[in-house]
Amino acid sequence: MEFIGGIWNGVIIRPMINSLVLLYSLAFSNFGVSIILFTLLIRAVLFPLTVKQSKQMKAMQAIQPKLKAMQEKYKNDRQKVSQETMRLYRENGVNPLGCLGPMFIQFPIWIGLYQAIIQTLPSTPERLATLSNKLYWWLPSVHKAVPLNGDFFGLDLAVPDPTKIVLPVLVGVSMFVMQKMTTMPSTSPTQDSTNRMMLWMMPVMFGFFTIQFPSGLAIYWIVSNIVGIIIQGFATGWDPLLKILNFQVVSQPSAVTANAIAGNEEVENEEEYDSDDGEDRRRRNRAGSKATRRKSRRSRNRRN
User: Fold this and answer.
1) Are 214 and 118 in contact, with CB atoms under 8 Å apart?
2) Is the distance from CB of 183 to CB of 221 less than 8 angstroms?
3) What is the spatial distance between Cα 200 and Cα 279, in angstroms, rounded to a whole number?
4) 216 near 150, Cβ under 8 Å?
C-alpha cells in the first residue's frame, strides 16, 4: 500500500500541487483563477480523447436505424442480436467504450484535485510545512508564492460553500447539461432507462458532494462542465441543449421574401384569371361555331 501511495503522491498529488501554486503566482495571486487555468489545461490535455468521444457518439447515432431494425428482426433471438450488434460496431468502426474514456480519466483527477486543494491551502503551520516539502526545489517561484490566499469572490476555496446552495446548484445544473450533451443513444428500453437514471443521478450526486467538498473543487467541476458542453456542442451539435431550453426556432419571412411571395400570388391569380377568361372565350367561340353550323344546315335543308 505504501508503494501505491508513493506512486499516487508522486504522479498525481505533487504535480497538481506544484501546478496550482505555479499558476497562482502567474495569476496575480488569485487561487480561483489558478483553478480555472488548471481546469483549462486539463481540458486541453483531454481534448483528443474528447474529440474521439464525440466521433464515437456520432457514429453511434448514425447506426441507430440499423440497430433498431436488426433488433426488431431478431427480437426473439438474443444471441443473434448480440452477434449482429457487434458486427455492426465492427463494420462502422464504433467502440461503445470510447465514449466513456474522458469520464474514467477524470475520476482520479477529481480525487487528486480534492487532496491537492486541501494541501495547497493549509490551515495549520504543520500543514504549511508539509506543503513546503511537496514543492519542487527546481521551481523557485512556487516557494515564493507560499502561503496562498484562498479567497475568491467571497468564498474560501479550502472549505465547502457556506450557503450550501449557490455552488451545488451550479454544479448540478452544469453536470445535467453535460450529461445530456454526452449521453449515448439508447438501443434498448433497458439502456434508455439506464441513461435516464444517470442523467439525474450524476447531477444530484455531484451537487451533494459540493456541499461537503472544498469550494475550489466545485469551481473545477463547473468550469470543466462548461468547457465540455462547448466542445460537445461544436462537435456533435447543440440539439440536446436546445431541447433543454425548449428553444424553438420560428423562421419568419423577411419583407423582401414576403413581397416576393405576395407578388407570386398576384401573378398566379392573374394567370388563373387569364386562364379562366380564355377558357370562357373558347367556350363562346365553340358555341358560336355550333350555332353557325346549325344555321347552315337549316338553310341547305330549305333549299333542298
Assistant:
1) yes
2) no
3) 68
4) yes
